[in-house]
Amino acid sequence: MTQLRLDPLTGRWVVVGTNRSGRRHAFRPPLPVDADPDRPCPFCPGHEEETPPALVTYGPSGSWLVRVVPNRYPAFERPAPMAVSHLGPVFTQARASGIHEVLVFSPEHNASWPDLDDTQVDLVMAAIRDRVLEHSGKAGLRYSQVIVNWGRDAGASLEHPHGQLLGMPFVPRELADEQAGFARFETSCLLCTTVGSEKAHGHRVVHADDEVFVFCPFWSGSPYEMLVVPTNHGSHLHRAPDADLMAVGRALRTALTLLRRHLGDVAYNLVFHAAPYRAAGLFHWHVHLVPKLTTPAGFELGTGVLVNVVAPEAAAEDLRNARAAEVVGPSE
Fold first, then answer.
1. For the CA atoms of the chain, what is the radius of gyration?
2. CA angle 28, 32, 33 (to 5 degrees)
3. How far from the centroid of its chain's Cα atoms is residue 69's Cα?
4. What is the CATH number of the domain that holds 118?
5. β-strand 205-208 against 212-215: which pairing, if any?
6. 201-204 — which CB contacts under 8 Å span 24+ positions?
7. Is the pTM above the cut of 0.85?
């Protein structure tokens, strides 16, 4: 049995399987990141000359724990106001002005997000906040997209765990669709209402505490997809209280640890969504955690309708069971 479910954030329909047939045998095995054994890892200590000079580092003097460097192959470069030119009735272009940075999580080559201790997670979240705040003061930029690609299936080209920060002169369609979703939900905040309802029913809850809420959305378009939402309402990540930032970072570690325990070291994307820098409308910043377990086929590509073979209720139960099996998180 399948259902159509509406994603209120984007206004799109998704197809969700309401049985439990989509199990781990239905998922493709993760592909390893292609590594060149003859090339030193550019993100490991001692190889700093392999990257452009660091924009900022975090850690004790003489060493670093978190490092931010310009992307050597930027999608956006040299921030400036967006200048559009029309080459014909249907040919419009603009220079891809902006910022593209790489955030190296740790000096440890194999320390991905679920392996980080509290201090390291907090530094990563502080770096994200600080860089987005820096972007917001650049003339011509309107929005920063923070992403993490883990694993080759998720788009990672290097093994060393890292994220990317992109400051751009426009608001991308996915974010604009979410802004419209909040605007359509006129009575209150869409995500505050969702969190309250999920707390009351508990079917899709993965993790909850006083500061953050993690759940598999009713409208999940991918198996084991999760949303990580700070319970304190706020539109902008770069203006969030420290306690909210650190709680979200640690909740992401919890969610990724549960995912790894249940399905192994699968590829995934983290996508941070916050309101554009100067947006005044209602929004609630949050993080999408999307495991890369299936391949979009012709139907998804032709319609934009995602097909999820694991109902979010079943996914959340699997992840809660994984938590019950063992204490979550690295030892301090």
1. 20
2. 130
3. 19
4. 3.30.428.10
5. antiparallel
6. 203/313, 203/316, 204/312, 204/313, 204/315, 204/316
7. yes
The two tokens of residue 311 are: 């109902």
Within-domain flag for 145: yes
Give the angle 220-224-230 at the CA atoms, nearest 5°: 75
Both tokens assigned to 283 = 């929004």
On the CB side of 154, CA atoms within 13 Å amount to 24
In this structure, what token pair is assigned to residue 249?
Answer: 């970072």
User: Is residue 318 included in any domain, yes or no?
Assistant: yes
Domain with 241 in it: 33-293+312-325
Per-residue pLDDT for the chain (332 aa), expressed as one digit of tens each?
789 999 999 999 999 987 655 555 567 667 777 666 678 899 999 999 999 999 999 998 778 999 999 999 999 998 888 889 999 899 999 889 999 999 999 999 999 999 999 999 999 999 999 999 999 999 999 999 999 999 999 999 899 999 999 999 999 999 999 999 999 998 899 999 999 999 999 999 999 999 999 999 999 999 999 999 999 999 999 999 999 999 999 999 999 999 999 999 999 999 999 999 999 889 999 999 999 999 889 999 999 999 999 999 999 999 999 988 765 445 44
For Cα atoms 29, 30, 35, give the angle at the middle one, nearest 5 degrees.
140
Asked if residue 268 belongs to a domain, the reply is: yes
SS3 115: helix
Number of domains, the chain: 1
- CA–CA dist 4, 73 (Å, integer): 40
In a domain, 303, yes or no: no
Quote the tokens at residue 324.
Answer: 């019950």
Residue 278's closest CA among 142, 130, 175?
Answer: 142
